[in-house]
Amino acid sequence: MSTQPVTSAFVAVTVNGTTYEREVDARRLLVHFLRDDLDLTGTHIGCDTGNCGACTILFNGQNVKSCMLLAVQADGGEITTVEGLAGDGELTPLQEAFSHSHALQCGYCTPGMLISATALLRQNPSPTEDEIRKALQGNLCRCTGYVNIVEAVQTAAKGGQ
Amino acid sequence: MSETTVAPTTTETEAPQKGFIGISVPRKEDQRLVQGEGLFVDDVKRHGMAYVHFVRSPYAHARIVSVDVSKAEELDGVYGTLTGDEVATLTDPFFQIAPLPGGHVKDYALAVGKVRHVGEPVVAVAATTRELARDAAELVEVEYEPLEAIVETERAADPDAPQLHDDVPNNTIWDGHFDYGDYDGALEAADRVVRIKRLHFNRFSSTPLETSGAVVEYNRGTGQWTLHCNNQFPGFAIIMMAPALRTGMDKLRFVTQDIGGGFGNKICTHPQLVALCLLSRKLKRACNWTEWRTDQHMANSHGNERVFLDVEVPVTDDGLMLGFRARMIDDCGAYTRYEPLGCIIWAQVTPGVYRWRNVRVEFQQVCSNKSPCGPNRGYSRMQHLWFTERIMDIVAQELNLDPVEVRKKNYIRSEEMPYETPNGCVYDSGDYARCLDKALELIDYGSIEERRREAESRGKLLGVGIGSTLDSGTNNFGQSQLVNPDLQFSGNNEVATVKLDIFGEIVVTIGTTPQGQGHETTAAQVVADILGVTPDMVNVRAGHDSYWNSHAGFSGTYASQFAVTGLGAVKGAADMLAGEIKRLAGGVLGGVPPEDIELAEGFARIKGNPEAALPFMACGAIVNANNAVLPLELRDITLNCRYVYVPPHQLPDKERKFGNLTLTYATQIHACVIEIDEETGAYDIVDYGAVDDCGTRINPRIVEGQVHGATAHAIGGATHEHFPYDEQGNLLTPNFYDYHVPHAMDMPPLKTDYLESPSPFTPLGAKGMGEGGGAGLSAVCSAIQNALRSAGGAIVYDSCNPYWRVWELMSEPARARENVTVEAR
Fold this sequence. Notes:
The complex is a heterodimer of chains A (161) and B (825). With 161 residues, chain A is of the alpha+beta class.
């Protein structure tokens, strides 16, 4: 006996410390769920193919591209988006360093860059320049040529994050 | 040989006292952007908003036989559709810049009757979600009758080539003859003539990370549309859109806040914006359109592709180049959105940075079945400057001249500034030779031969390359009359308002649409210095809103001009406000003349008597909320000042195609070192130096950031970025998977340095400088050719040189060399 395919599902996720329960289209991408359903628009979209990294988030502590996951796959998970980095309005050393080093121009790639760099510094508090570039190669920036982004990550690392 | 320089009126430069100008203060924009609290276009939400998806042409060239939207409209959750037939009924074709016959092009918001490139929007579908709109688009049935596609630029003008647009014969949008100096005399005087058969500037684009988009609302009560969008040149969009929509300009309210990169690619979004206007009116709801990356690559503006044919360079034995002659064919793709302005914009830098006095150019622009072109960082000048630098290197190689010395010999000299070019442009200031020296220092040029030998021992061919950018900025739109004498555009303008509000807040609005250039910050620096406060105390409204009434016909952020036009307007408005505050305070403080009042630390105070001071808060409160206390002669004071900056442009001479086409000419000289693997052609940029001279720098860190970014675009364009089409006109790189933009591992470390040659013609001595990328393209091509000297001496003839092309140049140098001949006279 054939059954109708499931087209929607109930999802419970914790994002930046708040738990959300929503019914979502089974095909909805996690990034669209964050942006359109939860109105967390800090996470951006720059491509259709998983190349640009503007949508990078922390998912259960791991940096992932939220366009490469369905919202239903995030069920039960814990997510940090760029909006969750600064606690009580106090910027993280990395956010401070991005501004100080002029590591952003239009700011569109910045949320993804910050998340990838945050994940890097958690795993490797004193990365070399090569390690930084390698860790950020999945995040495209069209404004900066990466020079100041690398500098900002180095500065934040030296600051002892 | 140089004619007498025609110096335009020098602007009275009363630079504000040194304070925050010249300091790299942190950007105001950063606080929101590092917390994900920017407001980009797709972040705008409205109740009941529809999501729009465009059905796009799968054919490069085809007649539309029928369009059936019924199945799409029946799908649950679909609000409605818009077809080309509706567009043709409800709108007029967009105004064309080209004279006839090129001006016969009929361009609408959606394809009408025919499609002319893969990805061209044919139908728009609006639905409750993005996913559903896409589903519904799949249900739209369009029947096409395919036609032969034109993909090759040089094929377009063939007499037997299919015609894209009715009444545009030979697919020629524009052609014209440019003749300056005495080219025939130069040929007579030459000891040698170097000839180059064909050079090709590649089609690519800066591909901003945020794609184009809009949320458009229609107010039925007032007949006004509000366009929350990321268009970077609202002044141009409104001029295009209002007549097409048969409405008044004020019915189109443009609002932008944060824009995720533009680089010129977000100037020509008016067709999609018109479709959204029609849909939002038809469906009585706000409509969101966010372009997919694939759509951006297939149908957004590409950078112009250009071929240079039958190039001829008369040279004396000691390496002095007397000019050049060439035939240039520019390929603008399927539609002329901003074109054919590119046919004149290159002429802003006709001789590049060189003292070439005799120039003859046949310029033709053709259309083809590829994505329409539009401004792209370095628009039209980048192609031309690359051409001048290719000449320099090819001639140097063929005549066995040193590429550094031959450049210095031919550079325009600092003591010749302001320098009038053969076509009447007036380069305002600069010192190219010093910039080159600094660039060479950055890459440690003195050690090159040693490094070359060391690289050889590792199987690598080392090459050094040099490139230049003249970042001409603050357009004189009068140049449009050189492509179409009937146009009524000239000059330029930008607007700012600066006001002091009731509680003493300083509020600034600007007409520009920044996409990362830090306008809020630099505007605050300028105002702070004039009003004697800190930038923190200056609130610059983010973005652009037509309702602020701080815009004019040319408002926007494009073509390297904010430091002149935008900040010129800001300075003008702040000077007006400072004058009003001084007059007010003088009156209130007992009849003190305004010139005896100084502004400092948020007070208007009597010079030499700082105790006698009126806080800005009191000034704002008196004028705005307590003005009955004022004597009648002070009641004209509003503390709300609007200033329109208008540069001192003059109409160019249409007959001679002669005149100053922009106000400023910033410089960048780049030098790079590459190593090519002898076996494979794979190469790395191992050293890179960029020297910038944009006059007075308002915020050096922001300037350096622009240099970095432009260099990255150049390196991308020189090494990988390419929009190739197959024979049927399918784009082969329609996303970031296939279109490789540099990532962090691709980019070499960049070293930068600077000079400051203040412009004598601008309010702050500053020059616009955002588009400096061309130098990098030339430098990489130059370095590849230099490295290949010992491997057969191939000529680099294309602006894009992926590894496979370098391998070809190494494998068959003779083929590339067929391009070049030298005639001894």
